[in-house]
Amino acid sequence: MDWPHDPDGEQGSEGMRQYGHAVLAKKIDEEEDFPLSAADYVEQYGDHPIRIDYETVVSVEEIFEGVEKEEFDDFVEFHQELGRAMRENGFWFYEGAEQFVGDDA
């Protein structure tokens, strides 16, 4: 796929190789962007690359296909929903992540 920028370049990872959740979170301003519409986020960043692991890059739009909420009230809610969607759809590569997530997540 042709990406609008290099997922490992300055625009994709702030000069260092950043993965998944970190890259998604850096696209928003915790103080100014909430409440945040999932549709607006995808409209603005849908074609942006997100590195999942050392060999896998997917688009923001692909990750958001598993997101159930239409709007996020705050940064915590955004993180929780994105984490859930990423885990359930195979976009979470951290070993042992399940030990930090209870049944209420």
Automatic annotation (TrEMBL):
A Pfam family that this protein carries is DUF5785
This chain's protein is named DUF5785 family protein
Give the species. Answer: Halorubrum trueperi
